[in-house]
Every structure is written in C-alpha cells, then in structure tokens.
C-alpha cells in the first residue's frame, strides 16, 4: 500500500532542501500531516485543492513512518492516514506533478495504477 500527500511544488522543494516534509499550513493548524489513500486522493484534491495549479503528488511508504502514522476518522467517518511527525525523505517512493486540466487534477498513472482513468 502507498499513501499520498498533495502539496504545492514550492512546499515540496522546501522539504527537499530541509531534508524532510514538515507539513502545510493546514497540517500545522490540525497538528498532523494529512494523507490520503489512492481511493481517497481524488476527492481530497477536488475538495481541498479545487482549481489550484502547481501541485505535486507525493507517494509515501506508510511502513516507513512507524507509530507516528495513525488511521483516524475523517470525511464521512472514513479512516484517513494522519502522520503525527515529519515525513523523512527516505519514506518517499515518488513525486509527480498533479496538473490541472479543464478544472480537474490529472493523477499520474505511474503512481496511481489502481485508480481507473
């Protein structure tokens, strides 16, 4: 299983420079880093990143995050992965642009093989 973080390309560049991803303003406000599963990511993009360009999709190995990763109820009671720590770059499996085409984010098939296009 892989979990996904959607963030701006600028936030991701800062994470690479810092050696770890420490979260967005929303993550800091909520006290944890928000992630989505492959099945949840498209709705996350449409709800929380609608119309935003310049985003990236970061694929992360949840096993590399240890006990700081918790599955907690969120949207509609569904369990979402929340990380109560920073993301070490060693946990990242891949990063891809999340372009906006005709108002919708286009998810990269190389990171999203299980979601129908």
Keywords:
117 residues; alpha+beta; three-stranded antiparallel beta sheet; 3 helices; 33% strand
In CATH, the topology is named: ADP-ribosylation fold
Q: State the distance separating the first and last CA atoms.
A: 19 Å
Please report the total strand number as a whole number.
10
Q: How much of the residues is beta strand, in percent?
A: 25-35%
What is the radius of gyration computed over CA atoms, rounded to a whole number of angstroms? 13 Å
Count of individual helical segments: 3
Q: Write the element-wise H/E pattern from the N-terminal end onward.
A: EHEHEHEEEEEEE
Which regions are unreliable across 5 or more consecutive residues at pLDDT < 50? none
Task: Give the count of structural domains.
Answer: 1
């Amino acid at each position: 299983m892989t979990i996904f973080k959607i963030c701006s390309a600028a936030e991701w560049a800062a994470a690479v420079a810092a050696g770890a991803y420490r979260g967005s303003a929303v993550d800091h406000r909520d006290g944890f880093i928000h992630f989505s599963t492959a099945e949840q990511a498209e709705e996350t993009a449409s709800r929380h990143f609608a119309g935003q360009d310049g985003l990236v999709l970061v694929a992360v190995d949840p096993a590399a995050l240890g006990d700081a990763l918790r599955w907690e109820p969120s949207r509609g009671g569904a369990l979402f992965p929340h990380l109560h720590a920073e993301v070490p770059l060693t946990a990242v499996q891949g990063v891809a642009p999340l372009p906006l085409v005709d108002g919708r984010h286009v998810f990269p098939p190389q990171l999203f093989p299980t979601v129908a296009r």
